């Protein structure tokens, strides 16, 4: 097979794959051997008829399609390698007149990865981001830890927002009690907004033993159509009022909730963790600022197929998130009254920016000849193994060759982002 580059106009590349008459005939013979069992010829057992007889009966081109497909699949990627073409879409192939005993030429048009030179990626000027951690931030962390370790105790008083009440309730529309509107000894945190709007506020001020008629109006978009938009009354009885009792902030608290012996040690550790997180956020914000300036400085023509592929990925990811919540994309679209094409258009601007940014980062990695060292790959695999509590070899097996290559590419892209950040001018 001989591959010949013809032309490139923007991102559309044309080239040919030329096969000799001998190569074509050899492929036809292989197609005959692989498919002869499909043909029944009188006087011959199935699969035993000679090729010439099958061709005479069904036409001499009966095996051409299979032969050409096999030749194409075996040689296409070799041609791309020889001609140094990085494709991003499926090819369109145009076959020359196919004649027995003559060479075969395949003319191919395919969309290739854009060729461009990224500029202005060194010395990018950005403003320094300083996310300072205050004593108030530390106190909030300790308070959150305190709340997570609070216990519920009976409150000998009327309920207020934030309390948890234990109630029985029965729901009525008019004189009719409706299905699903009854519960006994149901805990409800006042202010959680977990019940129908207006329900929880009316229980504020009630004490244990009180009975209360709670008047509400169901939302117009309520999931039960027979209740949507209707007024209802819930006959409630309060059994208990409970409040959160916070543990006292002292050294004993620190010992109970951490590996530290004193409250001061716990606060110091929280502050160090907050400072590290704040520093990481600051670095990420500055990296994004560098990438934003490089994005604005470079005008790159993006093939539509790349943008459509990015949108496909975003749609698929969103659909998976919906499924985790018990819904799917089609149901979500129906709920919003949208069509899939409208949703895709809403994602187009974001997809375009993501695609261009990734192209620029990749171009920087190539321009700077950045490579991933074996020890860097090993370090990443070890981190993944620790995260998923698995052995490194098991991680390698799960990744497979394709995902392993994708991981290596991802690390290379990260190095490119680090490179432009390290070479930025931070004011």
UniProtKB/TrEMBL annotation:
Statement: the UniProt record of this protein carries the keyword Cell cycle: yes
Pfam families, alphabetized: FKBP_C (PF00254), Trigger_C (PF05698), Trigger_N (PF05697)
Compartments it resides in: Cytoplasm
InterPro entries: PPIase_dom_sf, PPIase_FKBP_dom, Trig_fac, Trigger_fac_C, Trigger_fac_C_sf, Trigger_fac_ribosome-bd_bac, Trigger_fac_ribosome-bd_sf, Trigger_fact/SurA_dom_sf
GO cellular component: cytoplasm
Keywords: Cell cycle, Cell division, Chaperone, Cytoplasm, Isomerase, Rotamase
Domain PPIase FKBP-type intervals: 162-222
Keyword Cell cycle: yes
Function: Involved in protein export. Acts as a chaperone by maintaining the newly synthesized protein in an open conformation. Functions as a peptidyl-prolyl cis-trans isomerase.
Family, per entry: Belongs to the FKBP-type PPIase family. Tig subfamily.
Name of the featured protein: Trigger factor
